[in-house]
Amino acid sequence: MKNIDHDYWSGKHAKEADITNPDLRIAMQQLYGRKGFDFGKVNDIFYDKDRKNHYRPDGYSSYTSLTGNYVSKMPFRQKAVENNKKLAERCYLLAVTIAGELFFPAHKLGCATINPARASCFNDLLFPALESIRKYYDKEQNHYPMKIQMEAYGYFFDNFASFDEYIEYNLLQDYELLPKKFPTNENELVDFWKRSIEFLEARSKRIEEYAKRNDLFDL
Fold it and tell me: Quick one: which H or E segment has residue 59?
């Protein structure tokens, strides 16, 4: 895999690195393929000919840094970026590395897949999505966000015996550092970036240590 600071979302891959970038696919396979998860061959595409349906079970998505024009409901975003350029840039540069990548089932089963559900339920926030995943493993939970998706894709999450195993496998042990809510003003957005940076730096270090132990980096 590429070095820990490599940007997988630049150049021709700026919009759809999770679909088009073979280097990202290789890195994900090396890090997370040991349970048999399939990220496809380098020259494979993610979609069938009409580009509507994923044909593989294991896809991935990028952490959302909110540095760009993510949602129109944030009229304060541009000012926040202008007033905190270095902070916003640092968050973005971390989010486009391997530390900003997650993977969920990509094959559509009659409902939204996990990542679009994360977007619609939580504005792409990761922490509340992980809390829903936690509740999936607590079988006594009757109602929680994303329950329909969690049950539909239970075959994926059942690869892990517990929420703790899911977290450890995905190198997400630092997830408590994540922002807990969507920002509603400039100060909260700045705090969002700070928390995101703290999480992404910690996860980057964890991934780097794992890659070194397992000799995954390109020479």
Answer: strand 58-62
Is it the case that residue 54 has pLDDT exceeding 70? no
Residue-wise DSSP of 90-120? HHHHHHTSGGGEEEEE-S--SS--HHHHHHH
The count of other CB atoms within 10 Å of the CB of residue 121 is 16
Q: Which residues pair with 101 in a beta bridge?
A: 62
The first and second tokens of residue 112, run together, are 């939204």
pTM exceeds 0.85 for this model: yes
- Sort residue 185 into left (φ over 0), alpha (ψ -120 to 50) or beta: beta
φ and ψ at residue 75, rounded to 5 degrees: -65, -15
Residue 68 has pLDDT above 80, yes or no: no
CA–CA separation, 202 vs 78, rounded Å?
27
Could you give phi then psi for residue 102, rounded to 5 degrees?
A: -125, 165
**Among residues 23, 26, 27, 28, which one has the least CA distance to residue 10?**
23
The CA-to-CA distance between both ends of the chain, in Å, stands at: 9
